[in-house]
Write a structure and sequence with these properties.
CATH topology of the largest domain: Rossmann fold
Largest sheet: 5 strands, parallel
Strand content: 5-15%
Structural class: alpha/beta
Number of domains: 2
CATH superfamily of the largest domain: HUPs
CATH class of the largest domain: Alpha Beta
Helix content: 40-55%
Number of strands: 5
Shape: elongated
Order of helices and strands: HHHHEHEHEHEHEHH
Distance between the termini: 14 Å
Number of helices: 10
Length: 253
């Protein structure tokens, strides 16, 4: 039940559903002849959507998450890492494409970064995680494994943890695989990294942050696209809100 509530909250409390809800509420109020309240709901919905889709607002919300940890150029020498861990994302297992093409953007970039770091110490295991939330669908860990092998990672160095459906379960699975206190290089999207680090620390592991898949428009603040509302900026706001809800859920667990 708790997992269902988390999933519904994560979907319904995003900017677009909120705005659509306010617009629908405005229409109902207007039909019931509550004109002032109806137009107020319409105006609020439109304002929220415009602000959530505006670059300065979206970037301000996302920046604290994506800048919390610096990019990891090289594997740490001390303490030595025991594995490179790539957290699960999304993929399209039934698509008639290559193993890499079936990964979505965030998953592909996470895997590329994980392989880049793993190549610096190829005797380490490359651990890929993630189950599927859809019954009957192959887990993302298997998609990662297929793509990693196609990109030259030996099967003997791959370890698939394909039963975890969220970040907390992924951290627990890694701890069970490597033991408590293990030092791991943790690869995930930059916006997701602060929450992932907390989960792995809470699980008794020693994670080293390796953020990737940045959404911030570094150096583009003077471009026209930065100042115009767009779906790209709306996606940044959604990521920031999703992570805020994730941090709240972590505190309540």
């Amino acid at each position: 039940m708790y997992e269902l509530v988390k999933t519904l909250a994560a979907q319904l409390l995003m900017p677009l559903p909120l705005c659509m809800g306010l617009l629908a509420l405005g229409a109902v109020l207007l039909k019931c002849r509550y004109r002032r309240a109806g137009w107020s709901a319409f105006a609020l919905g439109a304002a929220v959507l415009a602000l959530a889709s505006w670059g300065p607002v979206a970037e301000r919300l996302l920046m604290p998450l994506e800048t919390r940890y610096p990019a990891l150029q090289d594997l740490p020498e001390a303490p030595p890492a025991e594995a490179v861990v790539v957290l699960g994302g999304g993929w399209r297992p039934g698509a008639p494409w290559s193993s890499v093409g079936r990964l979505n953007n965030s998953s592909a970039i996470r895997l590329m970064e994980g392989i880049r770091l793993w190549q610096q110490a190829s005797d380490l295991p490359l651990i890929v995680t993630g189950a599927s939330r859809d019954p009957g669908e192959a887990p993302i860990a298997r998609g990662y494994g297929d793509a990693a092998k196609a990109l030259g990672v030996p099967e003997t160095r791959l370890r698939l943890l394909d039963h975890a459906t969220d970040t907390g379960q992924e951290a627990q699975a890694v701890r069970e695989a490597l033991g408590e206190g293990a030092t791991v290089v943790l690869v995930t999207s930059a916006s997701h990294m602060p929450r992932a680090m907390r989960h792995f620390q809470k699980a008794g592991l020693t994670p080293v942050a390796a953020p990737t898949h940045y959404l911030l428009d570094v150096g583009k603040q003077h471009s026209l696209g930065y100042w115009l509302p767009s779906a790209r900026h709306l996606h940044k706001t959604e990521r920031a809100m999703y992570e805020a809800l994730g941090h709240l859920a972590l505190r309540l667990e």
